[in-house]
Design a protein that fits this description.
Blueprint lengths: L7 H11 L11 H14 L2 H5 L5 H6 L2 H6 L1
Length: about 70
Amino acid sequence: MAQTDADPVMAEVINLRTEPADSSQTGPDIPTLCEQLAILVSTGKCKEAIGVQLTQDSVKRLDSKDVEKF
């Protein structure tokens, strides 16, 4: 398995996790988080990145609380 330094997808995931939150927002941007989860699923990196294997359909069915959790 490649290291995250050599894997641009994982580097982007790590970057998404560490970006500071926008202080002007009152809560998380759920549609953006859903899109990020969908990208992880489509690249096959979901299980590696968040520890849970999801499908595109399961991402669409997640409620806001679960989206935040993942």
